[in-house]
């Protein structure tokens, strides 16, 4: 296939609400196009990170090339870009879409259109993509594809006559889907002779080859030995090879116009390769860079502290490495009296935070304590200055605060009408305000509301799922900042204030939350050799208290003075147990304690 002819190239993403089956469908496509042997087929091949496989969710986008021999007798090059479905990772979706001409919109035939189906379809339409609707899971007895077609037409204004009925599980309809992609998705346009214009979609660091960038070529072509330049950052480099993923890396002579593949940059500093930047020729640059992505804005902040302070520099290095392909990650150094040196890290949401923490621990062998998440507060001081506060410890003294504003979200929930009351009550309980409601069909209503982000990062989502028996789907976007009456709740252990346990709460709920938190901490903090009082305080005023009773834990008592190897084993076991604890003053505090606020039921 000549790379100057783009008529046989199809670049598309698969988008869907979480769990509607994108990854499963991608796997079937790889299988049907013989990209991987059936016997090598591990389920969900595109989800390469361990955490993705274990949790069954897609976090990072992934671009794979497959060759499809179509019914018209021609071979087509498909570049398939898998995207994440969770609302935390919407920025990855828009990044993938910028590299495509088409999008397969997967809708679960048993669930119908859900909140992120709507937001993903909107992103795809705004990017002017050709949309191929695919109704998945038709093998299930509860599938109702005809109704789902109607929802696609009515809720999304997308013609559903062309919708392909598929089952990612059995493979039924996948061939029809591939044919639909050939006919419905436009081939890429571009000028093969123009100066190179390639958009960086993603990148990762390789010890030997430096940064490897995934790119979409809009104009021109790239070969090994080309002298190239990053347009925004300005650095130049010698291309050390190009190729595509099938799904393993396959070297190519050239990446031609319209194609998606990888470029080995040889650059040793990950910070020089920025997702959203444009690669061009050093000597003959293109006139204009590709429109950059809008930068994702972190919404949730948490302190990450190594349990062993000697790991501080390692933590910094690890964060820098992760940032290479996760540009939304930001951090500043943070010092805590209780936890020592660490970083205040910003995330897109709670899932993003969990994933990053897990990757830092697994891939970089770090033992970390994460403190309870916070949002970005605007604190207006009496002297007229406004400060951004993402850590409760940084809150100025009460006497110097005029008022505090907190971020609100514009949220929507789609739910069957039976659960409308439950959702509205939940919104009120979390300081939210319902603005309006739209009946999408007899079976689903869309409820719009404004809610403080701080409420959403506590337990709103879990409670929404449980109160609606899992039927509700949630989507949100950043709204405005609003004034709230907020105070800092401090926690004292054995009479000492533990800065890492402080958090900002609405004043009228401070008492209830302090009481629940003290009770929760009492369950979490193990008994020590002495009694540990736990106190909740606002300023100097103690507002709640509980006590961890003393215990004398002599692990060797069980050994009757006998077997020395058993004795050693027990001592080692005790040491292991201690590893995940942090000594604060004289009290051993487990990781869970720092996140106890997420589990507090304050009703
Ligand atoms: N019965 C049935 N189950 C399916 C089908 N397709 C996917 N599933 C199941 O649905 C669940 C979600 O599928 P995934 O492919 O992980 O969904 P996803 O949309 O990629 O999810 P994220 O990557 O987390 O956004 C898995 O348990 C699949 O086994 C199907 O056609 N039929």
Automatic annotation (TrEMBL):
Domain of life according to the entry: Bacteria
Record-listed GTP binding positions: 19-24, 136-139
Location in or out of the cell: Cell membrane
Membrane topology: Peripheral membrane protein
Occurrences of domain Tr-type G (ranges): 7-189
Coiled-coil features, chain-numbered ranges: none
Chief site of localization: membrane
Record keywords: Cell membrane, Elongation factor, GTP-binding, Hydrolase, Membrane, Nucleotide-binding, Protein biosynthesis
Uppermost EC category: hydrolase
SMART domains according to UniProt: EFG_C
A GO MF term: translation elongation factor activity
ATP-binding keyword on record: no
SUPFAM superfamilies: EF-G C-terminal domain-like (SSF54980), P-loop containing nucleoside triphosphate hydrolases (SSF52540), Translation proteins (SSF50447)
Function field: Required for accurate and efficient protein synthesis under certain stress conditions. May act as a fidelity factor of the translation reaction, by catalyzing a one-codon backward translocation of tRNAs on improperly translocated ribosomes. Back-translocation proceeds from a post-translocation (POST) complex to a pre-translocation (PRE) complex, thus giving elongation factor G a second chance to translocate the tRNAs correctly. Binds to ribosomes in a GTP-dependent manner.
Entry protein name: Elongation factor 4
Species whose genome carries this gene: Tractidigestivibacter montrealensis
Taxonomic lineage: Bacteria, Bacillati, Actinomycetota, Coriobacteriia, Coriobacteriales
Gene that encodes the chain: lepA
């Amino acid at each position: 296939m000549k790379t100057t002819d783009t008529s046989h190239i199809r670049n598309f993403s698969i988008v869907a609400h979480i769990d509607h089956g994108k990854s499963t469908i991608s796997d079937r496509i790889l299988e049907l196009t013989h990209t991987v042997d059936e016997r090598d087929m591990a389920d969900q091949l595109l989800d390469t990170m361990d955490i993705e496989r274990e949790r069954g969710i897609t976090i990072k986008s992934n671009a794979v090339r497959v060759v499809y021999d179509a019914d018209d007798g021609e071979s087509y090059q498909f570049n398939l870009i898998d995207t994440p479905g969770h609302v935390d990772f919407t920025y990855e979706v828009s990044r993938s879409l910028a590299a495509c001409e088409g999008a397969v919109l997967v809708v679960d035939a048993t669930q119908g259109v859900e909140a992120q189906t709507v937001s993903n379809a909107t992103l795809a339409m705004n990017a002017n993509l050709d949309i191929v609707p695919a109704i998945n899971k038709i093998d299930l007895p509860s599938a109702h594809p005809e109704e789902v077609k109607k929802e696609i037409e009515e809720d999304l204004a997308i013609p559903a006559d062309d919708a392909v009925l598929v089952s990612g599980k059995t493979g039924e309809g996948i061939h029809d889907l591939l044919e639909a992609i050939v006919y419905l998705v436009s081939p890429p346009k571009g000028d093969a002779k123009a100066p190179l214009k390639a958009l960086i979609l993603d990148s990762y660091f390789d010890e030997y080859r430096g940064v490897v960038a995934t790119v979409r070529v809009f104009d021109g072509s790239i070969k090994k030995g080309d002298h190239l330049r990053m347009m925004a950052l300005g650095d130049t480099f010698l291309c050390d090879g190009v190729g595509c993923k099938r799904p393993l890396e396959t070297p190519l002579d050239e990446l031609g116009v319209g194609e998606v593949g990888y470029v080995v940059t040889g650059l040793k500093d990950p910070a020089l390769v920025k997702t959203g930047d444009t690669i061009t020729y050093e000597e003959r640059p293109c006139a204009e860079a590709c429109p950059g992505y809008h930068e994702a804005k972190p919404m949730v902040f948490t302190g990450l502290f190594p349990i062993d302070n000697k790991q501080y520099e390692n933590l910094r290095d690890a964060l820098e490495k992760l940032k290479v392909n996760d540009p939304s990650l930001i951090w500043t150094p943070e010092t805590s009296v209780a936890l020592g040196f660490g970083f205040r890290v910003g995330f897109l949401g709670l899932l993003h935070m969990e994933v990053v923490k897990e990757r830092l621990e697994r891939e970089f062998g770090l033992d970390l304590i994460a403190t309870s998440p916070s949002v970005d507060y605007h604190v207006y001081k009496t002297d007229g200055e406004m400060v951004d506060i993402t850590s409760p410890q940084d809150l100025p003294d009460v006497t110097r605060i005029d008022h505090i504003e907190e971020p609100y979200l514009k949220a929507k929930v789609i739910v069957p009408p039976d659960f409308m009351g439950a959702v509205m009550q939940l919104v009120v309980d979390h300081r939210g305000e319902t603005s309006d409601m739209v009946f999408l069909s007899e079976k689903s209503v869309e409820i719009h509301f404004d809610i403080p982000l701080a409420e959403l990062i506590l337990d709103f989502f879990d409670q929404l799922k449980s109160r609606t028996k899992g039927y509700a789907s949630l989507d949100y976007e950043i709204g405005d900042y609003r004034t709230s009456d907020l105070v800092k709740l401090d926690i004292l252990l054995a009479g000492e204030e533990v800065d890492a346990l402080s958090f900002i709460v609405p004043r009228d709920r401070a008492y209830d939350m302090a009481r629940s938190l003290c009770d929760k901490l009492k369950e979490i903090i193990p008994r020590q050799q002495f009694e540990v009082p736990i106190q909740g305080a606002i300023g100097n005023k103690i507002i709640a208290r509980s006590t961890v009773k003393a215990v004398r834990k002599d692990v060797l008592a069980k050994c009757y003075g006998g077997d020395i190897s058993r004795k050693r084993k027990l001592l080692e076991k005790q040491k292991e147990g201690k590893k995940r604890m942090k000594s604060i003053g004289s009290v051993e505090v487990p990781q869970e304690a720092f996140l106890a606020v997420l589990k507090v039921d304050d009703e």
